Fold these 4 entries.
Entry 1:
Amino acid sequence: MSGLAGWTRGSHTAGEVTHPTYRKGAGPGVVIVHEIPGITPEVLSFADEVVDRGFTVVLPHVFGDPGAPATTSQILKAIARVCVSNEFTKLKAGVSSPVTDWLRSLARSLHAELGGPGVGALGMCLTGGFALAMMVDDSVAAPVVAQPSLPAAIGRTRAGDLGLSPAEREAVRRRVAGGCPVLGVRYRNDPATGTRFDTLTSALGDGFIKVELEGKGHATLTADRAQVAVDRVLDFFDERLRTS
């Protein structure tokens, strides 16, 4: 937990669902949804960069042990938690994970508090596509999908699926057409992302901004951090969330 020093613990409730949150910083709001196995030191390091850029960052805690390193035991523990949780849709295509309803509520609450054009929403790996489901709500003005890996890229249909219902997919398309672009970052040859970037390019056209990295890697902003990806995300938040 030492890595969480300086972060304020809280919680958010939507309906009957409550999850802890960790908050730090000042300025426009950004919700960063952690990857497997949880809020690791690498996730915190990236979140601190966003704070240092002048943003209020909220880290929802949806699985794992906050602050714990990404050891094999922590990864297996988190995978087991996700596998038995009904908040995450693991294999089914054409649906969003139920936890995204709670995340949308969190984004609305943060935007109502801080004002401005909206908040940023960033998911990574298993949660990578959650930013798309969150942007169905107008409170999200800067959605970022980092190596989206859900549903598991098994078979052609799942490999290209965005983890959205048909209605959510159409809402995302309308928002992008209305001037809210989506930023995506991944390693080009990362098999976990399947063909989702092709799907997003086809559906959103120039409204989907791609950062595709060369070489072997997966976690673009954390364990396999690439400075060009981090810089582009920070610039995107600046462009979308700062008022003139």
Entry 2:
Amino acid sequence: MIGLLDSPTNGKVFIDGIDTTKLNDNKISSFRNKKLGFIFQFSNLLSDLSVLENVLLPIQIAGINSTEKDARDLLKVVGLGDQIHKRANKISGGQAQRAAIARGLINKPSIVLADEPTGNLDSVTSNTIVQLMKSMARKLNQTFIVVTHDREHFGDVDRIITIKDGKAFEGDQPSAMEILAK
């Protein structure tokens, strides 16, 4: 619902004070391109484009005033400064995931939805990416919603919601009392 990829059957979804349930398809697309960043579990890069071209796609589609320099800088931060001209189908899975992370952050979205963003990365690169996300969250006042099975990489975060057996709990694990109360 937060990614505006599905509509609620009842209720409303507010993002940045805007009732997104009242937006038509074109406005939803525009809103999504400007306000939301997506880091998918699988990189979903376009294989015929270069790493740099893949990262630039969201800002080109949204008409946002970021520059190629911003994309190059972000690619350096994720460790791909020397891979920018390679085709997406010529880089490793971990490199593709780092390119996808840069692509999800390039438009400086209010909310970044990240599905297993470190799942295909080694522990050193994972830590670098987590620190990048935390830094951007503070610097750009962004909200990162991260789905992960790898909780220990994220350390201290503002809020944790654990989903177990289809139920959501505040914190790492539901207490015995919460389980009994359900």
Entry 3:
Amino acid sequence: MAEDGGGDDLDAVARDIHAAQPDLVYVGLPLAKQITAIPRLRRAAPGSWFLGLGMSLSFAAGEVRRAPAWVQRTGLEWLWRLSQEPTRLWRRYLVEGLPLAAALFARALTRRREVAR
């Protein structure tokens, strides 16, 4: 696929998807490219489900090491990933992700208190 996740390569993939009309399409691209590619590909097969796999293929292939089991169990795998690729992930996790996580946590606390009353 083209570097920008578009162009002639994506058009060819869209034609193949249209011809196959699959129920499920796995998209193994980096997040930024998935965000661009999936809507374009969806037009070729509007009845299909599209699943963005992102980094999970690299984990499955053994190209990227997962966090130790204890880190995964404690829910801190995001911190492990951030330590492995800080340049690529700092904005996604710290600027975009933490405010969302804080809002979800606050909402959960509010609901828990309401139920307890």
Entry 4:
Amino acid sequence: MKTKIVKFIGFSGSGKTTLIEKIVKMLSDDGVRVATVKHDVHGLEIDKEGKDSYKYSEAGAKVSVVSSPEMTVYKIHEKLSLNTILSKIDNIDIIIIEGYSNDEGYPCICVARKDTGKGFKNDFIGYDIVVSDYSEEELKKIGFSGKSFGFDDINEIIGYIMSV
């Protein structure tokens, strides 16, 4: 099976992470191997000051690897393109991307929440489906005529992901 890739975009607080978490849980419970890629525009820190890996990074290491019996963290000290990141992931059935709203070429699910004022990022350009608390009538009124799901339609969203 070729690895499926799907991207979730939306404003912070719209419900992307909660939705992705539910999808990952259901897919994983069904034996699907899932990877997630999260774009963090606020900066990322995974080392703790005083730890050996932190000291190696501070000393100038371009790659830092920390491995334990439970996990391995491979940290590259440079910005990588989304395609480069994806090329390093193997032996996975589905990759779910959160963010990278400017990167095109992957099926895109827009998450929006009317109740919190976390609406849409643009004029529905590049959205394959919408997950929101907007009614179909409200979506049509604001210009979206594609397929939409509610936040509780997890099985239908997974069906869409499996079909791409």
